[in-house]
Amino acid sequence: MDRSTPMIELKGIGEKTQKLFAKLDIYTVGDLLSFYPKDYETFHSPVSIRQAASGEVCAVRGAVTGIPNEKRVRNLYILNVNVSDGTGNLQLTFFNMPFLKKALKQGGYYIFRGSVQTRGNFKIMEQPKIYSIEEYEKQTDKLIPKYSLTKGLTNQALQKAVKQALSLCPAEEEYYGEEFLRSHDLARAEDALHGIHFPTDMEMLMKARRRLVFDEFFSFLFLMRQNKEFSDRMENSYTMFETADTIRFVEQLSFPLTKAQKRVWGEIRDDLGSPYCMNRLIQGDVGSGKTVLALLALLMTAANGYQGAMMAPTEVLATQHFETVCEYTEKMHLAFKPVLLVGSMTAKEKREAYGKIASGEANLIIGTHALIQGKVEYKSLALVVTDEQHRFGVRQREQLAEKGEKPHILVMSATPIPRTLAIILYGDLHISVVDELPANRLPIKNCVVNTAYRAKAYEFIEKEVKAGRQAYVICPQVEEGELDDLENVVDYTKKLQSRLSADIHVAYLHGKMRPADKNRIMEDFAARAIDVLVSTTVIEVGINVPNATVMMVENAERFGLAQLHQLRGRVGRGAHQSYCIFVSTKENKETMERLQILNRSNDGFFIASEDLKLRGPGDLFGIRQSGEFSFRIGDIYNDAAVLQKAAAAVDKLLLDDPSLERPEHGALRKHLENVAVDSVDFRTI
Ligand code: ADP
Ligand code: MG
Fold first, then answer.
1. Which of 76, 111, 348, 485 has the fewest beta carbons under 10 Å from its own?
2. 10-residue block means of pLDDT along the chain (685 residues)?
3. Are the beta carbons of 109 and 61 closer than 8 angstroms?
4. Distance 321 CA to ligand 2 centre (A)
5. Is-contact 500 552, C-beta < 8 A?
6. d(C-alpha 525, C-alpha 507), whole Å
7. What are the residues whose beta carbons fall under 8 Å from the beta carbon of 652, sequence distance 6 or more?
8. Which of 42, 11, 205 is nearest to 113 (CA)?
9. Are strands 76-84 and 109-119 parallel, antiparallel or unpaired?
C-alpha cells in the first residue's frame, strides 16, 4: 500500500463507502491522509446536572426516569426523555429517532453529551449524543479529531480509515535535512501526519500543525519564486490609450464614481498605458464598488482592440457578472462583445464560445478560473481580472502567457491583507485601496441575538418581504448530519416556509447543487421570483442583489468575523435600509463579545484586525476564515510568522541551489514535483 492506493483497498471500505469518500474528494489513501480534521474535541469528565451551565456543551451522567413521552408535530417525531442524577433534572429531546424510545431503558445509566439550554425552570438538551459509561471513559480528556463529513459517513468511520491508512502506509521520506528541521524548529513529516490526525495533547497538535503549515507555504512560495518573473518587472506588450469609451461609460452610469473609485481608476489607466505590465491588487470593502473598476479596465482593453478576461471563483458569480455586462453593453452601447464560459454550459455552447474567443469575435470572456485557463485559445489576451480571488500568482499568469504575450493582471479582493504579506505572496505587486463607500448607502443595522429571538426575526423578514424587499438566511451546513447540532439548509427551508405566509417564496441554494440549478436559483432571486433565499456560504462572495435588505445568519458562532462581514456585505448594496441578524446558539461570554464586534462596526479592515487580536492559537481549528487564499491548513494572518520564515527559507534555497540539483535536495525535489501537480485548486462551487 502507498499513497496512490485507491480507498477501496482499505479494510471495511466497499463500493458504497468509496463513493461517500469520493464526495469529500478522497479517492486515494494519500487524499485521506491529507484530509486534516477541521476541529478537535475534548470530552471532559461529566458534570452534575446542577453544574451544567446554559449555552455550554457538556456531558452529564444520569439515569432515565419516567416513561419517555412522544409526540408528532407535522412530520417531525419528537421524543422527550427525563434524566436525573440526584442534583437536578434534565429533559432530553430527540427528533425523528423513534427507536430510542425502547433503547433508553427506564433506570438505565448513560452519559449524555450536548449543549445545555435553560427553558423557564428546567434544563434541556436537544439531540445529545448517548454513551455508555465505559465508552465515554475511554475518550475522556483526549483530543478527538472531527472531520468534515457527508451524509452517510460518520466521524467514527473516518477516524477508522485514517488509523488504518496511517498504520499500513509506509512512512513518507523526510524531505528536509536534519539541520533544516532543527534550525526551523520543525517536526518530522511523519510525526506531523500522526500528530495532526491523532494528537495526544495540544502541544503535539500545535507542532504537527506548524510543520504542515510551513510545508504548505514553503512549497507554494518555492514554486512561485522559482519563476524569475516573480521579481522582475515585465515589459508591457499591450500599451493602451484612453478612448472616449470609458469616459462615456462613466458619464452614463446612474451614479457618480466615488473619489476613491476615481483615484483607483486613474492608477489602473496609468498602468495600462505604462511601459510595464500591470500587476495590481485592488482592495476594497464589500460594497465599495470594485466591479465598475474592473469593467472600466476591460472596456479600455476592448476599445484598444484587445481581449480581456474576468475570472470569478464561483459559477454563480461569473454568471452574475456576465449578466451585468450584457445589461450595460445593451443600454450604453459599449464596445463589449462578451461571452460566458462556465462548467454547466453544454459541450456545444462551450465550443461556440471557444470559437469566438479564438477568432477574436469575442473581446470579453467571463467565467470561472478553471475554464478560462483551460484549453481556451485567445486571439490577443491583454488583461486578466480576477474577482474575489487572491491566489492568482505567477504560475497562473504563465499559463495564460503561453497563450500569447503576458497579460496585465488585476486582482480584486475584499479581504484586507497587510502590505508585508502581500509582497511575500505576490512579489512585485501594486496595491490600490478603495477606501470609501458610495454616498447613498445607509449603514447596516446589526443585532446579535440568541435562538429565542427567531420568532421575532421571522416576523421581521415577513414585514420586509411585504414591503417588497428580499432576505437571505445562512446556515452552516447543507444537509443534516455533517456536524452535530448545526442548522442545515435543506431542513431549515422547510421549517422557515411553514413559519412564513404561504405566498412568500422560500428557496434554497448550496454548493452541492448542480451548477445549472444554482444559476437558476440565483437568477430567480435576482429577478425577485424568490423572496427568501436560504443558503450556505456559497453566496458569500460577490453576489449583488441590491433589493435584498435582510441577512440572517444561523449558528453565527461557527463563522469567522471576516466571513460574517462578507456575508453581511450581501445586503446594504442599494438605497434601502438593510439589517443583519446574527443568531448565536452559544451564549458564552467570548462568543458574544466576538460577535459584538460586528455589531459595533461595519468596517471590514477594523473587523479583520479585531478578529486577529481575539483569535489565539487555540482557535485555529475552530473557525475557518473565508477561503480566499485556498491554503489547506495555513492561515496567512494567524500564521504570518511562519509565512515569513518559509519565505526566508525559500529565498535562501533559491540562492543556494535553485533547481534543487544537489543530492541532499533530491527528496525535496521529488516532494515539490508531487505538490506541483495539484497545487492549483480553484474552487468551482
Ligand atoms: P464590491 O466592491 O463588493 O464588488 P460592487 O461592485 O458589486 O461591490 O458594487 C455594489 C453595488 O454598488 C452595485 O449595485 C453597484 O452598481 C453599486 N455602485 C458601485 N459604485 C457606486 C457608486 N459610486 N455610487 C453608487 N452605487 C455604486
Ligand atoms: Mg464584487
1. 348
2. 92 93 91 89 90 87 90 87 93 91 89 89 89 89 86 91 94 90 95 94 92 92 72 80 96 96 97 91 89 97 96 86 95 97 90 95 90 81 84 58 78 78 75 88 90 94 96 88 74 94 94 85 92 87 87 90 87 91 85 86 80 55 44 78 92 91 92 65 27
3. yes
4. 9
5. no
6. 9
7. none
8. 42
9. unpaired
Give the span between the Cα atoms of 122 and 428, in whole angstroms. 62
- The ligand placed nearest to the CA atom of residue 389 is 2
Separation CA 556–CA 295 (nearest Å)? 34
Distance in angstroms (rounded) separating the CA atoms of residues 515 and 523 = 12
Cα 283 to ligand 2 centre (Å):
10
Q: How far is CA 672 from CA 176, 267, 297, 630, in A?
A: 11, 37, 36, 18
Task: List Cα–Cα distances, 255 to 135, 191, 337, 438, 574, in angstroms.
Answer: 65, 58, 24, 9, 12
Residue 295: Cβ within 10 Å count:
24
Q: Which of 23, 391, 621 is nearest to 7 (CA)?
A: 23
Using DSSP, state whether 336 is helix, strand or coil: coil
Pick the closest to residue 381 from 270, 276, 237, 264 (CA basis).
237
Categorise residue 329: left if φ over 0, alpha if ψ from -120 to 50, beta otherwise.
alpha
Ligand 1, from 249, 250, 255, 262: best to mutate by most atoms within 8 Å of Cβ?
255
Q: How far is the CA of 346 from the centre of ligand 1 (A)?
A: 32
DSSP at 481 = T
Residue type, 343: G
Q: HSE on the CB side for 649, CA within 13 Å?
A: 26
Distance of CA 468 to the CA centre of its chain: 31
| Entry pTM | 0.71
Give the dihedral sign, CA 32/393/291/581: positive
- Interval between CA 431 and ligand 1 midpoint (Å): 20
Nearest alpha-carbon partner for 54 in 588, 467, 617:
588
**Ligand 1 atom with minimal separation from the 284 CA:** 2
Tell which residue, 345, 301, 340, 344, has the closest CA to residue 322.
340
Residue bearing the CA closest to ligand 1, atom 12: 289
What phi-psi label fits residue 289: left (phi over 0), alpha (psi between -120 and 50 degrees) or beta? left
* Lining residues, ligand 1, CB within 6 Å: 255, 257-258, 261, 284, 286-292, 414, 438, 440, 544, 546, 569, 573
